[in-house]
Amino acid sequence: MHNGNCVSINLSSCIRLWRTPFRISTVFTIIFENQGRAKVLSDPYFLSLKERGYFMSNYHAVSHPSQPNYIALVSGSTNGCRSDFSIDIGANSIVDLLEAKGLTWKAYNEGFPGNCFTESYSDRYVRKHNPFMSFNNIRNDPKRCANIVSADELKVDEQTGTLPNYILFTPDMDNDGHDTGVPYSSAWLKEFLEPKLANPVYANTLFHITYDEDGYDTLTNNIYSLFLGKGILAKGVVDNTWYTHYSALATVEELFGLGSLGKGDATTRKIPLICNSTRPSFHSLYKLISDE
């Protein structure tokens, strides 16, 4: 245990993983819309995932409304974004860190028309949920912008075994629950996620299932967020440590050895759930536990 938080991690599990040829090769983030943690946990499927993953009960969005949270999750800052209107940002993101290390990325968006479509919406697709389109050094670079694709391309990448190292998957306005609610998004997620958890192509994938913000129904913007995947040390454990979207970004950065963007990701607490076969990925919480 650490500082009264409900975290109990078996370090020997990580040691066993180091001795096996295992490494997380892909981080796959799926973002849902506008619900507080308690309401999401009232759904049976979302509750069942809590028992199968590493659940962060004290995970928080960083702002309202939606768009600043998407931007924060990939860049360590809201970068001055305070609304859902289209914004052009002259800053770096996790894309810059990934590419500097020779790692690959894609943003899969349901309903995205393709061809670096920059308008604010198209049918059930909205730009405000597609954060990479806001960054000038992505939107204005045809090669980079080609990595922002329709969700339909995911099937092709699965079949060809060419999943990128970093995936940001954005359901449309129905499937993310924005216009429909938790039961609808839960049914969609079950149909979408379960085949992937059973598919060998995802064997080394860490899934991050999160909401962007609450529905203005909590005082602290407390949202549902969890990790699923083979590299998690402790499944079914509830971690009550305070985390934010910056924590998730910093954890991915450490997983891939990216360094940081020097913003909120540089000072936040990392999430202690990952170990690699090539090097111990012990975050500060691991070190405190192992010293006790």
Task: Give an overview of the whole structure.
By secondary structure, this protein is α/β, with parallel strands linked by helices. The protein has a single domain, classed as Alkaline Phosphatase, subunit A (3-Layer(aba) Sandwich). Helices cover 33% and strands 16% of the residues. It has helices at residues 11-18, 37-41, 44-52, 66-75, 94-100, 136-139, 142-145, 153-160, 182-197, 245-256, 264-267, 284-291, and strands at residues 26-32, 54-56, 59-60, 105-109, 121-122, 125-126, 148-150, 166-170, 205-211, 225-229, 237-239, 243-244. The strands form 3 sheets. It has an 8-stranded mixed sheet with strand order 7-4-8-1-9-10-2-11, with helices on both faces. A hairpin with a 2-residue loop joins strand 5 (121-122) and strand 6. Helix 4 (66-75) packs parallel to helix 10. The termini are close together. Residues 1-5, 15-21 and 276-292 have low confidence and may be disordered.
CATH superfamily: Alkaline Phosphatase, subunit A
Roughly what is the average pLDDT, rounded to an integer?
A: 88
**CATH architecture name:** 3-Layer(aba) Sandwich
Q: Give the C-alpha Rg.
A: 18 Å
Number of self-contained structural domains: 1
Distance between the termini: 9 Å
The secondary structure category is: alpha/beta
Order of helices and strands: HEHHEEHHEEEHHEHEHEEEEHHH
CATH class: Alpha Beta
Number of strands: 12
InterPro entries: Alkaline_phosphatase_core_sf, Phosphoesterase
Pfam families: Phosphoesterase
Protein name: Phosphoesterase-domain-containing protein
GO molecular function: hydrolase activity, acting on ester bonds
